[in-house]
Amino acid sequence: MNKYFQGKIYKNTLKRFLDIILSLILLILFSPLCLITAILIKLDSKGPIFADVPERIGENGKKFKMYKFRTMIINAHYLLRTDPKFKKLFEEYKKSSYKLKNDPRITKIGKFLRKHSIDEIPQLINVLKGEMSLVGPRAYYPDELEDQLNKYPKTKKLINKVLSVKPGITGLWQVSGRSEINFDKRIEIDSKYVDDLSLFNDLKIIFKTPFVMISGKGAV
């Protein structure tokens, strides 16, 4: 049986089973940390515990609401795109593949949460709902994909391939440099993940993820 059919069988059967079992276990294990995080967010700044972020693009282009702990000021995404005082910041944001190293919108506790990917834990709910997988490509914003496609038109085929699977909480690009990688290289890495989709590769990424979270390497 060739690699393509092995990957297809894994994607359509075992991968979803593992997602459900492992995400339930992780939610139980992380529940004390989630409670502490929620308290710290409320003490640190005004606003909800979860981030109010735009929808992301999931499998086959279907949009979904991603759950994340709030690490920024209220309405941070809306303000970046509409508030005149953030105009230069928004231009920098787009030029740097939709990542900012020194983002003034991030709260004090938010900086720590983002560095160690603690803000990503609520995405386990998205996994249980079937909108995401534990391991997969990055979940992009619609305007991000559109702008990056204009900037890197040769990535169209790679984008289509990446959107053929569910996005992941962690993935190959996350354990290969995270935000230090520009979009064209990131989408290439995610495309490679889709080509090599297998239980072995997913487990390898899962085992690498805790070390990336603890070190905070490449996070913004």
Notes on the protein architecture:
The protein has 220 residues and is mainly α. The protein has one domain (3-215). Helix content is 54%, strand content 5%. It is built from ten helices and four strands. The protein has helices at residues 3-12, 14-44, 76-82, 87-95, 108-115, 123-128, 142-151, 156-162, 183-195, 199-215; strands at 56-57, 63-64, 133-135, 168-170. A hairpin with a 5-residue loop joins strand 1 and strand 2.
What's the short story on this structure?
Helices cover 54% and strands 5% of the residues. With 220 residues, the chain is mainly α. The chain has one domain (3-215).
Total strands: the figure is 4
Order of helices and strands: HHEEHHHHEHHEHH
Radius of gyration: 17 Å
Structure classification: mainly alpha
Sum up the structure in keywords.
two-stranded antiparallel sheet, two-stranded parallel ribbon, globular, 10 helices, 4 strands, mainly alpha, 220 residues
List the helices and strands and how they pair.
Elements: H1 3-12, H2 14-44, E1 56-57, E2 63-64, H3 76-82, H4 87-95, H5 108-115, H6 123-128, E3 133-135, H7 142-151, H8 156-162, E4 168-170, H9 183-195, H10 199-215
Parallel strand pairs: 3-4
Antiparallel strand pairs: 1-2
